[in-house]
Specification:
The chain is α+β, with helices and mostly antiparallel strands. The protein has 29 helices and 17 strands.
Length: 652
């Protein structure tokens, strides 16, 4: 695992010394991604600079140093990630006459690009990666990203200079970087709690979408090239649904073999390796397979909370004891968790409001004390129907989807015509959300014209972020592209949308930033593209039974762990943000949500924010909405947002 950064300067004012200083500043900004080694490759005549920070995982020798030059001398690569099938690819290339200096996957990638070309090689790679490669013969810069989007890659123009890197802080470190806030992307953020690709918080800076590559020619001053897909999750879903596995025993047998292969590939490392273990289905299955493939106890890591409503440590401990792993557990006090909050803006570089970012960082920090690589169970919910929202949204659509669009819209308008305060007075408050807010959210759902926008409405933090962000209009996302796939069923459509948006832009961003902040490589066996393609061939009735998602994963896990250890409601990896905002974080939040402050910034409308804050303090649970605003305001203030001293004095 590593960090990459660089630039392509098309101006006529080039200095090798300034190039070296600039690329060094960019890689220094992401030194946490690669503390073991650094390097740079510069061609001032062509205007290219490539920088690298290395976290040594495979081939710890100098032969794994980057930037790396191909055997022909034509290709120079910087790369972040792992190619898990590199040994098979190496064998193939050796039969074609290639001879390798070292044992790194990076050298295999370069040989593959020379032998098969860029796109054909990308299709052969099974791994997680983001790369930049310079072809000095043709003077072309290539950028590419893995199929699922596990490894990040940002890029954008700053005048005549194309900047690119693993994190936004690397781009900001270049002296040419100038960019304002993209208010349209900010509106998307306040809706979802994250910014979907290709957008970022900055104007003119983009995320390279998953499963795409991009080619930029040094002398081409015309229109910018568009990313080119080499694989499609949408097409994989459509193909899988057209060719389902009809027999359950066949499906679970194939899944067992496939996951054993995926886990085994991700256990290849020249450094200590372990796994995150929450005690849930996905992580327990990954650890079970690791232990079955290992000759010694697997190191597993879990954190727990004093608040029992958010604590899964007991379940993880029981699974670890049954499997015989070398288990490490840390029970957190509130001040340990709250101490992470000031670090979040710098860690994530742009506003990010998934509060499980806190425990994800803490379990990564715990694991890094003993290992350099840790496997996780990410992906099970999106691929095997694990989220309860899939079933609840399906039930909603079954109940009301028959209504003509005009009737649904009229129903929504009627519900919205009554102001929220009046609904609150007319109806009893039977939950954490006020009756008026609940009915207005239902009104938005009724008004949605497509299955995609129904799901978007139900998943939104703020239902109308356009009213919150001044002079903003939400750009399109997979939620708003109706009819863009051949998938007719709402359940499968929600899973696909999550695979395209929520998984890469929330879950994988969270895991990458939290783990790399402590120089830990996180690997996800369930996100092997072969598992993803297989999962779409598994019929829904094999995924959901008796109201329980991930049925086939549960059934497979029962071969390794007693059912009673895992048969419980899904609880997620959450922290009690709603309580903290009324307690130890209240003063910090009050300062960031001050109406005068927000008004002076000129970006957000303070009125709905203050109303939401008041309702939350009165007992409603608006933690998701408020955390989104707080993470934006904290990011806006800078990467060193102060937390009141009283927070660090919280008693457990």
């Amino acid at each position: 695992m590593c960090g990459i950064a660089g630039f392509l300067d098309r101006s006529n004012h080039r200095s090798p010394d300034s190039f070296r200083d600039s690329v060094a500043a960019m890689t220094d900004a992401i030194s946490h991604r690669g503390p073991d080694d650094s390097g740079a490759w510069i061609d001032g005549d062509s205007g290219i600079a490539l920088g690298h920070r290395r976290l040594s995982i495979i081939d710890l020798s100098a032969e794994g140093h980057q930037p790396m030059v191909s055997r022909s001398g034509d290709l120079i690569i910087i790369y972040n990630g792992e190619i898990y099938n590199f040994k098979d690819l190496r064998n193939n290339l050796e039969t074609l006459g290639y001879r390798f200096r070292g044992h790194s996957d990076t050298e295999v990638m370069l040989a593959g690009f020379e032998q098969w070309g860029v796109e054909a090689s990308l299709r052969r790679f099974n791994g997680m990666f983001a790369l930049a490669m310079w072809d000095r013969r043709d003077r072309v810069l290539y950028l590419a990203r893995d199929r699922v989007g596990k490894k990040p890659l940002y890029y954008g123009w700053a005048g005549d200079t194309l900047l690119f890197g693993s994190e936004l802080k690397a781009l900001r470190a270049h002296p040419a970087f100038r960019s304002g806030i993209d208010r349209n992307a900010l509106a998307l953020y306040l809706r979802f709690g994250y910014i979907p690709a290709p957008y970022t918080i900055y104007e003119n800076i983009r995320k390279l979408p998953a499963a795409t590559w991009l080619a930029i020619r040094a002398g081409d001053r015309g229109a910018n090239a568009d990313p080119v897909p080499y694989w499609s999750a949408r097409e994989a879903a459509e193909a899988g649904l057209r060719n389902p596995i009809r027999d359950y025993d066949t499906a679970i047998g194939e899944l067992d073999l496939l996951l054993r292969s995926s886990v085994g590939l991700r256990m290849i490392a020249d450094v200590p390796l372990g796994a995150f273990l929450s005690g849930g289905i996905d992580s327990s299955l990954v650890v079970s397979l690791m232990q079955a493939l290992s000759s010694r106890p697997v190191k597993t890591f879990c954190i727990g909370f004093r608040e029992q409503t958010h604590n899964e440590a007991d379940h993880a401990r029981a699974v670890a004891r049954h499997l015989g792993t070398d288990h490490t557990e840390l029970t957190l006090t509130p001040d340990q968790a709250l101490d992470v909050v000031p670090r979040l803006p710098h860690m994530f570089d742009e506003p990010f409001a998934d509060s499980s970012q806190i425990p994800t960082f803490l379990v990564s920090e715990l694991a890094r004390r003993q290992v350099t690589v840790s496997l996780s169970g990410d992906g099970g919910d999106e691929l095997f129907g694990g989220y309860t929202a899939y079933q609840s949204c399906s039930r909603f659509y079954e109940k009301y989807g028959w209504m003509p669009a005009g009737l649904r819209s009229a129903t929504g308008q009627l519900l919205r015509a009554v102001p929220q305060p009046l609904w609150n007075r007319l109806m009893p408050n039977g939950g954490s959300m006020p009756p008026g807010a609940r009915l207005h959210r239902l009104a938005n759902t009724f008004a949605a014209q497509t299955q995609e926008t129904v799901y978007m409405s139900l998943m939104s933090f703020w239902e109308d972020p356009g009213a919150l962000v001044k002079r903003a209009a939400e750009p399109p996302t997979p939620f708003t592209r109706a009819g863009s796939s051949e998938i007719p069923e709402f359940f499968e459509k929600m899973m696909l949308i999550d695979s395209l948006v929520y998984l890469p832009d929330d879950i994988l961003v969270k895991v990458d930033r939290a783990s790399m902040a402590v120089s830990l490589e996180a690997r996800g066996p369930l996100l092997d593209y072969r598992v993803l393609e297989f999962a779409w061939r598994v019929p829904r009735e094999f995924k959901v039974r008796n109201g329980k998602g991930k049925w086939i994963l549960r059934d497979l896990l029962s071969r390794y762990v007693p059912v009673e250890m895992i048969d419980r409601p899904k609880s997620g990896f959450a922290v009690p943000i709603h309580q903290w905002l009324r307690g130890p974080l209240r003063d910090w939040a009050e300062d960031l949500l001050d109406a005068g402050r927000i008004r002076r910034e000129g970006i957000l409308n303070p009125a709905p924010i203050r109303q939401t804050w008041s309702e939350h303090l009165s007992g409603c649970n608006w933690s998701h909405r408020l955390w989104a605003v707080l993470m934006f305001e904290s990011w806006l203030e800078g990467t060193k947002t102060p937390i009141p001293a009283s927070v660090t004095a919280v008693r457990s």
